[in-house]
Amino acid sequence: MACPFFMPTEKLEDGGWPHPSRLPLGGGWSGHCCAAGYEGAEPAIDELREFCNLGYAVNCLRLPRERSVDALRFSIVRDRGGQLAVMFVCELGHRPAGHGTLHYDLAQKRWISSHPDPRMQKMAECYLESYLLRRPHQRGLESSSSQIHE
After folding, report:
1. If you average pLDDT over residues 111-137, what whole number do you get?
2. SS3 call for 112
3. CA gap 87, 108 in Å, rounded
4. Is 11 helix (H, G, I), strand (E, B) or coil?
């Protein structure tokens, strides 16, 4: 689960996680905060490690008291026929608070359906980028973020 107020911008190769591929976005990311009043604030490495990349950041000083989502989860629910389905689940108080599925066309290198919230869409793109790097039949192929964002 990633913090819903986190805007990932760059893969974080050495964040100190024991198993980075198990993180909610498939790896660690650096980025900035989008919480009201803190837009653009760049979290320190310990904040990225403990809050931004994990969600449920109740000890984060920037986390709004009133919020509709505490954390986001992503998962590939279908990978066939050149199309991927990326499911997202929003959580509030450790309970589901919304969900949906986004679709990506591998051949056209574009999203068929995307999320209207730019933060959630960016997190889906990061998750997809990490997935494509680990995808067995993609090994040896470069998967750049420009392929995902088009």
Report:
1. 90
2. strand
3. 20
4. strand
CA 58 to chain centre: 19
pLDDT digits 0-9 by tens, 17-56: 888 888 888 889 999 999 999 999 999 999 999 899 887 8
Terminal-residue alpha carbon distance, the chain: 25
Q: Which residues neighbour 17 within 8 Å (Cβ) at sequence distance 6 or greater? A: 23, 28, 49, 53
Give the pair of three-digit tokens for residue 132: 């494509």
CB atoms within 10 A of CB 36: 11
Residues 6+ apart with CB under 8 A from 44: none
Name the pTM for this structure.
0.83
Measured distance CA(150)–CA(145) in Å, rounded: 9
* Pairwise CA distance, residues 23 & 68, whole Å: 22
C-alpha distances in Å from residue 75, one per residue of 16, 37, 47, 119, 142: 23, 31, 24, 16, 21
- Strand residue runs (E) in the chain: 6-11, 29-33, 71-80, 83-92, 95-105, 110-113
